[in-house]
């Protein structure tokens, strides 16, 4: 048990160091934000301006507006940043096989579950560092305008509730998916899925899952918990906090299921060797 925990921590630290050193991990989030800005300057809440002073608001209104703007910031940031996370995670598990060292790795006294979980958490943590820095720029802007420490606290809360579940969801599938489809084809499928299953609004004659609780862009959490409609004119009716919680749990649960499928397949493959 102790050796498994030590191995898990060692794998996680190793994977973190390997991923954080990749230049693409730092470039991709910046390129995605630049792409989003080229489409629309809505990554930062347009409700913010330099006239934000607490004295202009009744008691409690300032905090509500600040929380709403923080949720809008997180929702807008979540439109494209998870796309980059999924792409960057897609080669993390299969690279041992492509580098012809899979048999060597399997010879180590480490359980498959510890390898999968360590690889997953280490790479997710490293990939989210540049994402958090980019998001932090927006939070710093809100703080500068509002001059209130709650802007930082609300920014952290909205990241955890709106952005993180979707990031965990796409990361789990990007770790497991290339095992079955190959990395290049999986990335192509994932990009198509992101636009079809998240950004395509219903009513265009193409069936889509973009308004379901399994939408990792976070529209249910943003709407259910904070009353924010991330995609204007999305056609999403106002949802309840309970539905927002259902979406959050569904995304995290599905991520765990994807890792479970990867674990089962890896165990089956190891028994065949």
TrEMBL record:
Indicate the transmembrane segments per the record. Answer: 23-45, 65-88, 100-118, 124-144, 151-173, 179-196, 217-242, 248-268
Top-rank taxon, per record = Bacteria
* Keywords, comma-separated and alphabetical: Membrane, Transmembrane, Transmembrane helix
Q: What's the name of the protein?
A: ABC-2 type transporter
Organism, scientific name: Ktedonobacter racemifer DSM 44963
